[in-house]
Amino acid sequence: MNFWQGKTIKLRSIEPSDATFFIQSNLDSERGRNLDFVWPPISQASVVKWTEDAAKQTMENDTFHWIIENTTGVPVGSIDTHHCNPRTGTFSYGIDIIPGHQRRGYACEAIVLVLKYYFEELRYQKVTVPVHGDNEASIRLHEKMGFQKEGAHRRMIFTRGQYFDELWYGMTAEEFQKMYQEYQAIP
To answer: Which of 6, 58, 103, 136 suits 158 as a labelling partner, its CA being 20 to 30 A distant?
Structure first.
């Protein structure tokens, strides 16, 4: 069995041909708000160059960016790790499932595969995730998955002319192992 294959998705590296996926994804302003902010328009050439460069990257400093594909091979989102600190054993990630593919369990399964890798293969001991206080879907996802709300940075996000809190959720390797025992059998 493939470590990167779940029941409903698989994770794979970015390919140059994913430029079209990212160009289409970048047109959704609401998606941009939930991830970061409303981005200015960028050229197709910029996205093509970015995907070509990303396709050549290997895991560096334990950070990586995966494409999430459903069982029919259609890209439905992406997940990337960042702020990886092997000394303290902590890391963060960002996840994005495009509209039309949300609420199908893809995000949960992608997160579980990444956590399994970081906890069981790279010896990390904790993941922390910042979530925009106005992103109800992400809050529900992380709470449903068993993440603990660890705190809030007040008024750290600005969008739609308002400030929102940035919420911090965390999960330890032991909490993950207890909650996701069925994934322990995946080679």
So the answer is: 103
142 C-beta neighbours (distance < 10 Å), count: 23
Quick: pLDDT tens for 24-49. 887 777 777 777 777 788 899 999 99
Please give the structure tokens belonging to residue 160: 């739609």
Asked if residues 55 and 48 have their Cβ atoms less than 8 Å apart, the reply is no
CATH number of 9-185: 3.40.630.30
For residue 107, which amino acid is it?
Answer: A
pLDDT digits (tens, 9 = 90+) for 120-139: 999 999 999 999 999 999 99
pTM: 0.92
Type of residue numbered 85 = N
Q: Show me where the domains of the chain are located.
A: 9-185
Bin 151: left if φ > 0, else alpha if -120 < ψ < 50, else beta: left
Contact of 37 with 30, CB cutoff 8 Å: no
Mean pLDDT of the chain: 92
Task: Please list, residue by residue across 5-22, b when 16 or more beta carbons sit within 10 angstroms of its beta carbon and e when fewer do.
Answer: bbebbbbbbbeeebbebb
Q: How far apart are CA 137 and CA 123, in angstroms?
A: 29
HSE of 72, CA atoms in CB hemisphere, 13 A? 3
CA atoms of 130 and 152, how far apart (whole Å): 9
**CA-CA distance, 181 to 156, in Å (whole number)?**
36
